[in-house]
Amino acid sequence: MSIVIHHNPECGTSRNVLEIIRAFAEEPIIIDYLNEGWTKSQLQALFASANITPREALRTSKSPAKELGLTDPSVSDEELLAAMLEHPVLVNRPIVCTKKGVGLCRPSEAVFKLLDVAPGTIYTKEDGEVITAP
Q: Most CB atoms within 10 A, among 21, 79, 109, 132?
């Protein structure tokens, strides 16, 4: 199974996760979801596999979530999914799929649990911050 990253090249966390995958695994399949968009079944499968809800996957910063009224707790999962289909930026990123599972990799070191990386392995992110695999 190839590694897949649902990636936003403008996002520092997404860029760091991509580089961690490249450094410790393989060249992943990169899906630029802002350009390609989502399907409802794709989002439902990703969220189920990652064991997160649409609410947990909702990007509230640097997105139109608040302006669209999506931060209100009364908004249903179905309404969130519909908004995510219309506005792909509403899905937090990056979401990574590997043979070990699927996860929303925020913070970027969360990707280590989806890769075969020895505990204690050190990586330096693009901003110079050093992170360690758990």
A: 21
